[in-house]
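Reading a protein record of the kind used here takes only a little practice. These numbers are not coordinates but entries in a learned vocabulary of local backbone shapes. Here is one such record, which you should read through line by line.
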Amino acid sequence: MDDKFWRLLLARGFIRLSSMMFAIFFMWRLITQYNSIFIVSLIPALSIVGYVIVSIPEGYILDKFDRPKILFLSSVILLIIYIPLLFYSSLLLIYVIDLLSSVFFFISGDIFYTLIKDIVEKEKLSEAMSFNVISRSIFEIVGISLGGISAAFFPYLFPYLLVFISLLTLIISYSISSNIKTVAIEKKKEEKTEELNYSHVIKLIKYMLPALLISLVINGIFVALDVFASGIFYDILHSGALGYTAFILAFSLGTLLGGTIGNRFSEKLLNARSFALIIASFSLVFYLIVLVDFSPYIEPLYTLILGIGVSLIDIPLEALITKIIPSKIFGRTNSLIMIFINGSSPILAVVYGFISNFFSIKIIFITLGSLMLIISIPAFFIYRKLVRTREEDIKKVLQL
């Protein structure tokens, strides 16, 4: 991996860090101020809504214009979005900033994956995705820690810290623009000249639709962790911000461990049996979270296990998808894939917040665990078809 790859990871990482800080800090602040899971649930809900709205035009822009400059522009806008927190804070402002900042957070992620297609050789994509998961986990850990510590000890300094990190992001993203652009242009000159448009994107999406629907449901189930975590620790365990932070932090620690394992065994993990078994194990963890006596010391262990499993699925799948999607339509295809994967999140976040008024967290988690177990059965057959896909199969799908 060359210098361009590492700088790109760093820029993406700082954007993720600021996003995690914001979510952790304000989700705890809202549960302590309003004692309402529904009000808290709007944070993860709004964080997806904005991206869903802009994803289709954003995908087209990434395929047609200079991606590194779009990354720099996103960093500038993120800095501007966070600055009002230095002077004023209200529930409405928090929601607005959450909505707007999430748009550019997800855009930066799409830019990362489209640029990886340009600067990393196909043979090294699995290794690159493993480093991506490791980097993502490290920055999430730092972001969660800073958000939780700020909420517990110095909330008045949080806006300044958030703006400072956004400024660092801007500087790093500016430093990478010219070099990566040159590589992207040179590689595109070597590609065939077939014109690919949204009709080809739709064909690809149809081909991957069953796997995308499985991912949509699984991601929607995992939203429950974000929605109910603060409620579990504030209302049930009567714990402070640090206990809540440890619960969320353990998931990122798990993805870091999973990324390290996946770096060595990503090719061996790329099979349907592994995916189905990992998904089935998720159901067991959801049961344990609520069936074993609640304890602020044990609960983080469960999210640690979930994080490891998520990484072991993500690394080989991300490498496969990045490899088989043509570069010319990668931005558009990836944006639609993200809609499928994340599309259920804002709706379910609100639904979880609403049904928490009628059902206990224990019943909700048992139901979600059972659903995860059921999903693991069709997931085996669906992913078996996907992991056998090669670039030649995609050319047939696109009729090239």
